[in-house]
Amino acid sequence: MKVTVTIDDEQFEVQIADLYARPIVAEVDGRRYEVWLNDTPVVRPVSSTPASGIAIPAPSAAARPAAAPASGAPPAESSSRILAPIPGVIVAISVQPGDTVEPGQQVCILEAMKMKNIIRAPRSGTIGAIRVSPGQHVRHHDVLIEYAD
What we know:
Blueprint: E1 2-7, E2 10-16, E3 24-28, E4 31-37, E5 41-45, E6 81-83, E7 88-93, E8 100-101, E9 106-112, E10 115-120, E11 125-130, E12 137-138, E13 143-147
Antiparallel strand pairs: 1-2, 2-3, 3-4, 4-5, 6-13, 7-9, 7-12, 8-11, 9-10, 11-13
């Protein structure tokens, strides 16, 4: 998806691979950025070049289309798992095996650097297995939850 973002009266064309993946990967003028959404949109550049001021609003649940696979996307197998976006400690698990989840629904909370991060379901489906427990330390890309379907 392409969107136009205006910053200080300057327009940028932003290419977004999958608006519902976490993090959202956005490309602006050939530079890749990871966009992390909680309640307030926050942008953290992947490169060392600062990108202050770029924000992408979170769409309402009713406006969520089915996610299309992006070029360079992880293998299809990874869509059956929810991975830790950052290292941290699991604070709470919000789902159980057998629960049905919708895209964007909270599945667990991961604390990193004294901040609680809500981990949300990237797609709809049925929870198959919970691979973590509260208090457990996880590394970047550790498997947190697996889908049954």
